[in-house]
Amino acid sequence: MTPDRLQIALSELDAQSLRRARHVLDGPQGVRVTLDGKSYLSFSSNDYLGLANHPDIVRGTLLATARYGIGAGAAHLLTGHHRLHQELETELAEFVGLPAALLFSSGYMASLGVLPALLDRHGEVFEDKLNHASLVDAALLSRAKLTRYPHRDLAALEQHLAASSAKVKLIATDTVFSMDGDLASLPELLALARRHDAWLYLDDAHGFGVLGERGQGALALLGGSLKTPDDARLIYLATLGKAAGVAGAFVAGSADLIEWLVNKARTYIFTTAQPPMLAAAVSASLRVIAQDVWRRENLGDLIERLKTSLADLPWPLMPSDTPIQPLSVGGNAEALRLADGLRERGILLPAIRPPTVPHGEARLRISLSAAHTLADIDALSAALHELAAHA
Ligand SMILES: *Cc1c(COP(=O)(O)O)cnc(C)c1O
User: Fold this and answer.
1) Which of 172, 226, 330, 351 has the greatest number of C-beta atoms within 10 Å?
2) Which residue has its alpha carbon closest to ligand 1 atom 5?
3) Last residue of a domain, one of 261, 290, 319
4) How far is the centre of ligand 1, averaged over its atoms, from the C-alpha of 205 (Å)?
């Protein structure tokens, strides 16, 4: 790209209907939002527990702000590592049941830090084809060989692992796949990682807060299979801007792993620490996540209601038991027609099209929040049935 070509390239995006635009949100994130000046019932945030504007979290953040100010003022390895960061890392490690944890400014930065800290061009990274873009970019940045296996195809993964002569191997997967809502087979992946002496890197961006009885995330699905000496191969990433309702991310694993990352993860070292008040926000959020079991129960009820009430539509829901419930539409034009029709009826739901998903697999990504009610699901269902009748 050159400066003089930008305008032409942008108009080419226009011509292919691929130009992206942002919409302006007024007021807090939630299930009722004001976007570009109009109010909507929204099924399009990752605020799965409805915590983005929770009063306890707001209060905790304000108190910490009054006491400690805003800016961290320096990177963690200089003078930016605040006691609130330190204490939150201990809390997070305990929360997910691993020995140690390290805060990052975002999930994207965490992965870009971790993979290059562990692998170089002699290594090999094995990734599910539907992994989040940040995991692909992290592998590219590490300069290791990147091998992608078909979605959830463990036999293909095992063949690749067996054929690899790399010195360091790392399997990376989303735990809950962000555009499909289905789950990776974690016990089987851990067994494969053990058998082939590979790291297992789990990106739990959509599981943390949502999965597990206390919202401890995807590791709950590994249950008892975790308590063996070689759990040191497990690297757990959760983001704090989705269900936790705040911002940032953390990586958890063995104490040695975390110590290595403090020394080697460049996206940890060469960036300013997050404001300490955000650590207070996450800490307040953890308490709500653990205590408010009803939020996860409500999500379960909403998912069930959604599946029943959308069962007779011409477009099937994709198989998922998580708050990500994609409605499989197929064609791009049809997906857009539905999203536009819903917006006219006051409902916000994004049409996900290629290249985010494979060609011919355009969908409406219904994203549920514990703050939704059964009546909200019924409103969505009524609108979709109306649109089906006018197809
Ligand atoms: C959102 C997301 C990320 C990025 O996390 P941020 O904290 O928003 O940078 C990483 N992985 C997955 C699977 C995600 O959905």
Assistant:
1) 172
2) 107
3) 290
4) 6
Model confidence pLDDT, tens digit, residues 140-176: 999 999 999 999 999 999 999 999 999 999 999 999 9
CATH number, domain of 309, equals: 3.90.1150.10
The answer to whether residues 297 and 250 belong to one domain is no
Number of domains in the chain: 2
Q: What is the distance in A from the centroid of ligand 1 to the CA of 267?
A: 15
User: Which of 44, 137, 203, 282 has most ligand 1 atoms within 8 Å of its beta carbon, as the pocket-test mutant?
Assistant: 203
C-alpha 165 – ligand 1 centre gap (Å): 30
- Here the CATH number for the domain that contains residue 102 is 3.40.640.10
- Candidates 206, 270, 279; CA nearest to 243 is 206
CA-based R_g, the chain, Å: 21
pLDDT tens-digit map of 238-286: 999 999 999 999 999 999 999 999 999 999 999 999 999 999 999 999 9
At 332, the amino acid letter reads: N
Of 246, 270, 290, which residue is a domain's last? 290
Query: For residue 255, what are the domain limits?
Result: 55-290
Q: Which amino acid is at 45?
A: S
Rounded to two decimals, what is the model's pTM? 0.97
* Nearest Cα residue to 280 out of 112, 23, 56, 25: 56
